[in-house]
Specification:
One of its GO terms (molecular function) is FAD binding. The protein is of the alpha+beta class. The chain is about 40% helix and about 25% strand. The protein has 6 helices and 5 strands, in the order βααββαββααα.
């Protein structure tokens, strides 16, 4: 039997203005490392960058998603992280996308999706990624309180190491 798909959806605020995040290559570096790490852990998803903040979906085996999310929690390129959804999912929304990217304009999307996504760059692929990201946002139980997400994460980890203050 295959392992359940575990999904975490969160949003956060960028630590620096868009000129810094894009101009100094923070977003490109983040994507490159995320794609390598996610591919190795069988994790898929999408990162949306608005210029002010992030929206991200991570999905895959719990054993892959959980350590990735733990590293995201301490990443200084963002702050004020709020979990929107943390649950087991029936299926992946982003199969084959080690980490898709949606940014502030199509040129940025094309440039940052050029590598690591297989058929990325084709209009139908971009449209599919956008549609899937919107569906996750619409379908997520946004009213889930932070403490509920924290308890779910603690329960999933089963270790004191992952307990949040």
């Amino acid at each position: 039997m295959s392992e359940d798909i575990f999904r975490i959806v969160y949003k956060s605020k960028a630590a620096h203005p868009a000129e810094v995040m894009l101009g100094q290559g923070h977003v490109a570096a983040l994507l490159a490392s995320a794609r390598r790490r996610n591919l190795a852990a069988d994790v898929s998803g999408v990162l949306v960058y608005t210029g002010l903040g992030f929206f991200q979906v991570l999905e895959g085996p719990r054993s892959g998603v959980q350590p990735i999310f733990e590293s995201i929690l301490v990443d200084r390129r963002h702050h004020t992280l709020a979990v929107i959804e943390m649950d087991v999912a029936a299926e992946r929304r982003f199969p084959g996308w080690s980490m898709g990217f949606l940014g502030t304009d199509r040129e940025l999307d094309d440039r940052l999706n050029r590598s690591g996504l297989g058929a990325a760059g084709a209009p139908e692929t971009f449209d599919q990624l956008l549609r899937r990201a919107l569906l996750v946002l619409v379908d997520s139980p946004i009213s889930m309180p932070w403490l509920g997400a924290r308890a779910a994460f603690d329960e999933a980890s089963g270790s004191a190491r992952a307990r949040w203050p």
